[in-house]
């Protein structure tokens, strides 16, 4: 019998994975930086992540979305993962969590 996991619990696991991925130029994870706009999980445990980058010409524009996709796919419960990059709305420092601002000395 396969393990049933609800989408909220899986969402938490995905967020925990996202918190292990760091922007190489800023010592804060991409979740706390506010780069993750949304995480969608359907009933088949397919995941879609809507995220942005700090700038459109970010040096990791090619590699960071792939890293996010691969790490999320590594969760046993996830059947598939897709990352969509958007710049609407553009990322600003206001999207950072209090934790990220504190880490960067902005508070």
UniProtKB/TrEMBL annotation:
Q: Could you tell me which residue ranges the MIP18 family-like domain spans?
A: 12-84
Pfam families under this entry?
Answer: FeS_assembly_P
The source's domain of life comes to Bacteria
Q: What name appears for this protein in its UniProt entry?
A: SUF system Fe-S cluster assembly protein
The organism encoding this protein is Pseudotamlana carrageenivorans
């Amino acid at each position: 019998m396969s393990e049933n996991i609800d989408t909220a619990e899986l969402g938490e696991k995905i967020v925990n994975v996202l918190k292990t991925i760091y922007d190489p130029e800023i010592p804060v994870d991409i979740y706390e930086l506010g780069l993750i706009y949304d995480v969608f999980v359907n009933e088949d445990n397919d995941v879609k992540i809507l995220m942005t980058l700090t700038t459109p010409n970010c040096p990791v524009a090619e590699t960071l979305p792939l890293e996010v996709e691969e790490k999320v796919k590594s969760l046993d419960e996830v059947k598939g993962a897709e990352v969509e990059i958007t710049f609407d709305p553009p990322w600003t420092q206001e999207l950072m969590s209090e934790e990220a601002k504190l880490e960067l000395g902005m508070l």
